[in-house]
């Protein structure tokens, strides 16, 4: 199913590869695992936001914008990719990055790239995560007073246009599975703002897809997300003129793998990052895909995913954030630095 004509710019390298992760599947004791490599969408070092921004930036340009205003955490992938694609589209980029007291603002990882891509960064300290108050509107009003034409991108680019990109991605994936003669039982993905998941849910119920869609939350509670996904997908279906809307029974969401909170490392996340790096030479990220892979690994261990099943894991990107973490906390104990010639 294709969504109706919407303005769209071409930024992503598509289709992204669908690769079987044989050594990972063996290490986990059986299920066939395929990685859908949306970390390789290319522009701005890739990730799921590139697909979304093809639509979101096209809309901004159609509305006459000369400046993109985006928000996120200090290590936001959304901010980094908006900075890169804004540069490519000839737009200025202003980033409002919120974090809680004590969070590192070191110019590493995504923050370094925001600067290299030429975006202007505004830091704010928030009491609760993702509560930007009026900061975005205030900045937009200030830019307007200066004669600029700002376009404010919603958190995660999760507008109906952003979701449309993952209806298309569903089509792309189903085409690849059918060409490979593979029938998938599950599609696993990380859930943040939920826009990617809404698009995948809309794509799956309308295709219809053979697999069950499973989301692993990295921040919010499963009950809250279930309601939001149903409501936001229904709203998007209206705008996009898509026939069917997902019900809560059409997908599953889990919130057991968040740990202490958004962006905070967990043992399971570190193990997942390390296992995938060592078996496949593929980098996950500490905020989203590492936790989603921990969820999948745990579901295989507990039998929720059986050894005869076939799983697609949507790799949404995010590896630049690895460089903002302490190396010792990211690498398991068996990998110690070794200096040849040193004794003791
Ligand atoms: C933003 C992001 C997600 C989550 O996507 P949402 O549409 O916000 O749910 C997952 N993985 C990575 C790497 C991201 O940057």
Secondary structure blueprint with pairings:
Elements: E1 18-20, H1 22-27, E2 32-37, H2 48-62, E3 67-72, H3 77-89, E4 92-99, H4 110-116, E5 120-125, H5 135-145, E6 150-152, H6 160-180, E7 186-191, H7 195-206, E8 212-217, H8 222-240, E9 251-254, H9 267-280, H10 289-302, E10 310-315, H11 327-330
CATH architecture of the largest domain: 3-Layer(aba) Sandwich
| Helix vs. strand class | alpha/beta
Q: Give a count of the beta strands, DSSP E runs of length 2 or more.
A: 10
Mean pLDDT, rounded to whole units?
95
Q: What's the structural domain tally?
A: 2
Bound molecules: pyridoxal-5'-phosphate
CATH class of the largest domain: Alpha Beta
Task: Give the strand line-up of the largest sheet.
Answer: 1-2-10-7-8-9
Helix content: 25-40%
Sheet with the most strands, sense and barrel status? 6 strands, mixed
- CA-CA gap between termini: 63 Å
Query: CATH fold name of the largest domain, please?
Result: Rossmann fold
Low-confidence stretches: none
